[in-house]
Each structure stands twice: as C-alpha cells, then as structure tokens.
Amino acid sequence: MRCNKCGKNAPVKPNIVFFGESLPAEFPSACQAVGMRVDLCLVMGTALAVSPFNMLPTLVKESVPKVLFNMENTKETGGQDFTEPNRMKLFVQGKCDETIRKLARDCGWADDFDAVLPDFHKQPASAQ
Predict the structure, then answer these.
(1) How far, in Å, CA of 9 to CA of 12, rounded?
(2) What's the DSSP call for residue 74?
(3) For residue 125, what pLDDT is reported?
(4) Using CA of residue 115, residue 119, residue 120, residue 125, what is the dihedral sign?
(5) 72 partner at 20 to 30 Å CA-CA among 42, 61, 85, 100?
(6) Nearest-CA neighbor of 38 among 60, 11, 15, 70?
C-alpha cells in the first residue's frame, strides 16, 4: 500500500515497531511506569520470545493477576509459565479472537465489545 498524499508515493507503515527496528527512546521509562500502575496484566497472542517485550509481564508487581490468552503456554518459548499454581497467573488456551469474545460475552460486555471492534474482526450474525 502506498500513500500519494505527500506526493512521494511512499509506502504506508503502521505505527508499530517491526522486528529489528529500534524502539522509541521512551520505551524503558514507559515500561517502568506501566509496571507500577497496572492492576491486571493481559497478554495476548504471543510466544513471549522476543526481547524486550517478553519482559513486560515480569515488570508488573507479583501481586497483580496476569492472564495469557494464547494457543500455547509460554513456558517453553518465553520462559514464563502461566499455569504455575498460586502465582496469580491464568492461561486461557485458544484463539485470541474467540477467547476474548467469550470473555466479553460472559462478563455481559458483548454489546460494548462489538461497538469498538473493527469491522474485519466482527462475526456474521449467523455465527454469533
């Protein structure tokens, strides 16, 4: 996809950091601040294998619940076991779109969830 708005026919790049690119300078301080302020840590769709992102759940206080929504636990790939008993961790196995949708429905948030969900993630009415 290319953008002609500036007249350069430049490629469009999403506002993300690709593998191998430098992180923003404020990343370390932002991680520290987030780690001190969160009361729930949700980790979704990752093997937690790429540093420094794989360390984000460890920056959160030990007393904060951590939930992994993923096809597999990250014990082998990222060194973090979300099935450890008595460690304020939970592993929800399955496809992220399906498990998060079920969580929203079970909590009574289905309408609010659908209202903010991008169209390409919405299920046809027959599948709901």
Answers:
(1) 9
(2) B
(3) 58
(4) positive
(5) 61
(6) 60
Nearby residues of 73 by Cβ (< 8 Å), 6 or more positions away: 81, 82, 83, 91, 93
Residues of the chain with pLDDT under 50: none
What is the C-alpha to C-alpha distance for residues 83 and 29, in angstroms, rounded to an integer?
A: 29
CB 74 within 8 A of CB 44: no
Helical H segments across 1-128, by residue range? 27-37, 56-59, 75-78, 96-106, 110-116
The residue type of 62 is: E
Among 128, 107, 104, 99, residue whose Cα is nearest residue 116: 104
Burial of 117 (0-12, 13-18, 19+ CB in 10 A): middle
Helix (H) or strand (E) holding 67: strand 66-70
Note the pLDDT of residue 32.
85
Residues 15-33 pLDDT 10s = 788 888 888 899 888 888 8
pTM: 0.78
